[in-house]
Fold these 4 entries.
Entry 1:
Amino acid sequence: MKFIAQACITASLLFVGLTLPAQTHGNSTAKLPTEATVNEFLRHMFGYDQNLAWKVGSIKESEAPGIAEVTVIFNTPDGPVAKRIYVTPDEHFAFSGDLVPFGADPFAPARAELKNTTGPERGPKDAAVTIVEFSDLECPHCKTAQENLNKLMSEEPKAKLIFQNFPIEQIHKWAMLGAKYVDCLGRENNDVVWKFIAATYDHQSEVNEQNAEEKFKEFVKESGGDPAAVSACAAKPETEKRVRESVAFGEKLGVNSTPTFFINGRKVTGFVNMPYDAVKAMVDYDLK
């Protein structure tokens, strides 16, 4: 059912962009549509479906000059679905999907940006391949992806993994607190933070907005950390500032859903439905 809901949303958004003309990309700032215009567009597109509600998350300039980027959270009967819609400067056309980098070395700009990661690392310092994971501890898809990710890291000893906080507060109520704990633990003890991340995913279904603090303290203790010290660190304003900077860092790289991975700069979204062998082949290719 969830697949059907997502497919209907995607098909409708793709249909509206089928006649999209070629655009000339200059250095001008994008003309941003108003939230009222976006909501009227969505009402005309999806108003017939009384089971579908939505909320406009953000309206900003996209990576492509002159093109506006709108993030919409659709609340379907099967749960929230985040979609990105791009709007042309004249506001006559919209299209959906991902902007894919182009050029002789399309992933070079992302590789350069990803040298500024701040999250905990796992693997050799001089790794030939670096995998950066933008993740949210409350995200069920992130939990599901961990099995594939752990298998990949065990089979690719020359690869390095970096966990970068990207809590999606609009739909995940305790994700920000979890990210603060990751930030504090990562600065204190690299081994403990990875155990904490694993423990949180393992017990994700037991955590809710009311018991999150208590549960995180339990996971910290089980992982070998000091629960009181980490809790105090998580409460500091500078900790939230670092987490929000991590989110902004991801947004700059075009991240708008979790989990999102960058394999030596190549963006891979999900790692849940994507065949494991395809992702491993990307890593193997870069190792060569």
Note: The chain has a mean pLDDT of 88.
Entry 2:
Amino acid sequence: MIASSSIDERVDSAEPLLERVTTLHGRLSSLGDRYDASPVFPADSVQTLIGADLHRTFAPVSSGGEAFDDEREQALAILGVLRRIGRADLSLGRLYEGHVNAMKLYDWYGSPEQKAWLGSVLSKGAMFGVWATEPAPGVSLGRGPEGLRLDGAKSFATGAGGLAFALVTAQPQQGARRLVVVPADITARADLSGWRVRGMRATGSGTYNLTDLRPDPRDLLGEPGDYDLDPRFTAGAWRFCAAQLGGVEGLLIEMRSALSDTARADPLQRARFAQAVAATRTAGLWVREAALRAATNDLDAPDFARMTRGVVERSALDVMELAARGVGTRSAFDGQRIDKITRDLSLYLRQAGPDYARDQAAIAWLDHDVWGDGDRLW
């Protein structure tokens, strides 16, 4: 366990970075409303992040990324940035979370040559995604007389057609699946026609056809099986929880702003607000703890992240209901921030397998108190 004073020092060290993100809130929020009304790839929002150099912040240092004292300091910085972007626009938060995921994968598994290439494309403003979901029979990686060849498609491919590159999982003829770097901006390969949703509209999470793409051997990132290695794979769920947490925090802020003087004088309304504060801060404490445990490759970090997913989901659902009950009919009006955040969260919380994740966490906690040394209950 990390002492609270140590955590505070690490947060303070990231303060200039977090202040830089905070100054973007108004613009990102306004752009998010625009892209929600006319859902296309949020190019202006992405360019705002690139203009603030946030696309390079968490890249490997040799690729132009910022140097942090250690993994825990970087994790807290990522947490702070994802929360702030999520408060402004959850669609953009989802896109940025995927980019950060890609930067971490390059940091862990990239060769010096691959990191040098990454630095060159980041200097030109490239943004990345990570696509692992796929319709049957999946994406295969074959090798023939003309070299490597991909077959298949990715589904729920966030940013399809808009991002510069994506890391995709592909199944070789033998062995475990592996990561392949592909261009993600070929609009003819992106099909967004099925992405007709109430929330998270600007993520453009459609399908992307990879058939006949011919990657070079240097486009193979890491070794077969690297992507699925735990604790990194499962424990990394804390990052999308951080973006979701930002949405919950944004909803709490809007709820407070919407409460009239009359409502603030009503003890029932104050009780709702107090519940919303407690739910939001509870989620925040769990996400922070999950981030710190993932940063140290704690063997129990995957189960801690699984439980954190459930805590964030429950907190978000509670705050969504409390905000709607507290603000009333106005919370459902088109153009209201509460309505947009609620619609976005309703979809984002459906990240794959929430019930299974919590069940697996419960199995681990039944075996031993995952909270860890120094504070075990059993």
Note: The chain has three domains: 4-127, 129-226, 232-367.
Entry 3:
Amino acid sequence: MNDNFENQDFEKRTDYDRILNKFGISKIDEILPRIGKENIFFRRGVVFAHRDFDKVIEGIEQFRDYAIISGRGPSNDLHYGHFMLFELIRFMQEKYSFKFFLPLSDDEKYVFRKVENLNIAYKLALENAIDIFALGFKPDNVRSYVSSMAPRIHYLALNFSINKTYNSIKAAFGLNGEENTGVGYYSCIQAAHILHPTIDYNMPVVVPVGLDQDVFIRLTRDIAKKRELTLPASLYIRFLKGLTGKPMSSSVPETCIFLKDSEKMIKRKIINAFTGGRSTIKEQRRFGGNPIICTICDFFEKFFVKEDKKMDEILRKCINGELICGIDCKPLLTEMILTHQKQHSNRKKETIKNLDKYFDHEIDLSVLDKEYDAI
């Protein structure tokens, strides 16, 4: 769902099997033949695990309607790590006819002090929504809302609050008791986001998340059990590597590429990116590179290079020393990102015209920057 409680870097953990077994999560390989490999997120292991998605497939085969949900906490612009997640959702929606629910969690960012006030979060929420919907989502297949402006969500959260003790929330998130009261209560709001489609529309839900966010899924499933609701299913994705070699984070701009980054900024970030290359061209030609640790290669494999033959060629040439990071791969990724940004900017024009159709409540477009008038 959202990106708080990042106290454990699961992406760097090597004991995935132990974590999956501990929390009752299954590897996606077991049901991959039923899903198919037409999408690179499944074909290349970006989606690597699930909980109860086999039951979702069975329900779909019986013509039951499902919802897919992923929140967006508006504290900054979107970067390509976020973008990858919503591309996955768009594919899943088209494949399985899911209804897409998008809570824009301004309340979360406020209680966690990621934004100074709710007005800032509201403006960012609309801007983030434009970027997300411009991926190709259709208004009639989307239900979106700014969380603080959704009384129904806070009504459900209040109802759910009696199903959780403070000690259970404190233990789940490692709270020390010094946090503001909104931090503990937010897990109830998160549960309301997830279970809202099931309660109000009779749609069981699928939630794509990173493994570090599974704590929210577990807490919500506990509430669903007590309320005798269909338990939310989940899909688990591997994150894009941060450009510095450290985890990608909006609060560390050098680790990621934002959709609003200028051409100059993109070139600077990519040229400085951590790779698996050697210290000199001579060594690279002789010993080859290491694509496993390369952030540039990670962008290729998880998002930008869709053709398997092309991806295999890049990997082979990297290992054989035929590709030089600064001469071949970094300029290629730069070109791909700039092309993608231009195409995305063109799609945003139509999205802005119809933005109000995506929301369950009225929105105020006057808060947007003037740059959106020119799009």
Note: The first strand starts at residue 26 and ends at 27.
Entry 4:
Amino acid sequence: MLVFFLVLSNIIQFYFVVNMFLYFFIAFTGLFIIGKKDDKNIGYNKNKRFAILVPAHNEKNVIKNLLDSLLYIDYPKELYDIYIICDHCSDDTEDVVIKHPLRCNLFVMRDNLPSNKARALNWATDKILRVKNYDAFCYFDADSLIHPQFLKAMSKKLNEGCVVIQGQQIPKNTRETIISLIVSSGQFITNYFFQKPKEYLGLSATLHGKGICFSTDVVRKFRWDEECLTEDLEMQMRLISNGIHINWCEDAIVYDEQPLHISQYVRRSVRWTRGSIDTAKKHSKNLFIGFLKTLDLRYLEGFIYCFGVYRVLLVSFCSVAIYLTKDKFNILLDLFYRIPYDTAFKFLIIMIPFFIFPFSIFVRKKVDFDVVVGYFMQPILGFLRVPIFLLGVFRDKKNWGETYHVSRYTIFDLVEGIEK
């Protein structure tokens, strides 16, 4: 039994070592390109047509702000259409859309099935493809706010040959509460030390569920998974498994609402955990095999990211196994012992990167100091990871669940030069 613990533990430790070196390499790449920008002269081709899809389930509190932001899109009106999908709304969402001055198409779902974002998108997409042709589809959530230059930036990427593009997601309510500040700080780190360097290194970006652009060919071939609670993550892993590269576009900005309270954060995280577990079961094996066959790092990074949902379970197992076999060879212990100096200084060396990243974006004036403070408050939410994982394991995966969005931030609060 001890041998079993030792062997399995070292296999898992090797996974953690590869994980650590890969993501440290990606993050450190971000240090050198943080100020590097895409060509500011964002061009677009007149033949690029967009369908903008927004599923909404009981979003009366925020849907008007989204519609307001869509009024200010800086792109020829004849080259895009907006489709709002009221997915089994029981509030005034539909009325708000009808009364708003924005020219858009309203789809209403009223069947006997429960609300489901993926199903709503598939249903609307089928209707659209039957009657109109577009070069690409863009997806947003009802709590999103869209930067006026979004379609121009996406059109530029499409003209460069990209077929799946994730825009830069920026929190719209960073300072609304302590919880939103903590969660938002992680999003800024993700943008500059995960998404941006992955784009630079040729790795696939992470899909966030909003601010996404798919070419119509991809839309026709890949439908959203209606059985998964994280349809964006499942789509991401399915695309990577099929050799489809996901680009990231820094200039295509979408603003997103972050949780205001612990209850919102936990509810969202439990749903994400459940969906991530299902995604890992479905795709991790294929991603790993894809890496072994091709040695393409995009498959390996996808596998590591996908399988990361089990990190709470893996860390717990390794901790027990290392304790039981501490006098035997353990990869992590061996690497730790190889670091020179005493134990306290070793921990200091290990912690240095976690200080470098937030302060570097502060020095480059990418974020304010309160965001750096929020970053160092993340351990507060870290204590919730174990119960969130356990709740996610046992969560019902059929019921999507309702997310309450209430932030009052508007596009006028976030983008200079826009007036009501």
Note: The first helix runs from residue 2 to 33.
